[in-house]
User: What shape does this take?
Amino acid sequence: MSSGLGADTKGKAGSCSIVAAMGDLKGVFRYKDARQVSIMGRDMRRWDEDGVSDPDASDYGEFVLKSGMARLPNDPALLVMYASFLIEVRKDGQGARTQLQLLQKASPSLLDNYNIFVAQQLAKQLRRDGDGLDLMGYVEYQRNYRSCVRVHKMALMAQRAFWNTLLRSDKIPFRDMQRSLALMAQTEARATASYRRALERYPNNGKLLKVYGRFLEYVRNEPWTASKYYAEALKQGTGESLLNMTRGQTGSDLAAAGTINEKVDGLVIINAQGVIMMVNAATITMFRYDKGELEGKNVSILMPAPISTQHTGFLQRYVETGEPHILDRFRIMVALHKARTMFPISLMTTRLAEMGSETLFMGVIRKMPPASTDGSEVVRFWTTASGVVLCADTAAADSFGLDAAQYVGQPFANLCTDVEAVNR
Assistant: This one.
């Protein structure tokens, strides 16, 4: 195998899919030093007419670098090469920073420290150009995170099926036991690989570290290792500013929202299907959900009927026609708490950007200000088109003698002496 790889470098890019199928990276070639890896990987230097790296050649080059790193772990020169590859070819600043962190622990020489400095500057420039945890980077992170959670659940379900097999009867067919054990091993290995890929790219993400700790504790039964990840997750924490992530995104028109105070104003980012990608802390407090509970759910969960059933259609119509009907202006609406009680809000929705085929929207949510600031008594009710009360101001108790919640579901006309005038 190793002689075949070193004998003919021509055509390696075209056969990289076969090379990539090799499972044992250490057995690919017996590299003596980083220079041999560099020579072997030179075949990756292929570009098209626009100066873009050839994808097959890039895959081959990455395979050579990884096989060299497997053979020569913690070699400073290889770590620098791989970090530079991630920056220049993959445009993966986060992954490059991970390699540089490993390099700093490998007793780098003076020349290595200079290379670290150069690579760090390139990584910073890449971050300024749009990489890292800006909005687009966060959406990609969310996809990686959901992928980890999905295979995590599969591993838990496999364990559940195994125990159901054991408890089902006193006599269990050996083949059933074999299938259950094989499924457990398969799903655990798949989840472990998924987590490792995500942690290579986001090694300091507190949320990912915490859920990986749960995987280690409850799936792999490694509580001591899990405790280390819990401690690191607590140390790293989270604190990304959602508003900062949206700055500079194509298509956004946040000027219409005026000054946004993230401590008070709720911010919700959704995709074209209405799935919540991210919310800020103010939204969690406003709607009384727990942290992390809203991501992945449809935004209609925050709306009462019939708006909740129509919202996906509104989004689809905009994606298909491009005609905005409700974008970039505040509207008074009724929202829904987790406890299924309704309250009035002021909402503005704006289109942020497109990532591939995915259009992203952000909603700015504000609680309704007092009805009157001049001392006059004003009570507001929000009703359906047919006049049924959805919610009311807290001041309703002072004027009508009942708490605001007691009016919900009642005809508004019942509160009036001139019912005919109200119906008109």
Residues 1-22, 128-133 have pLDDT under 50 and may be disordered.
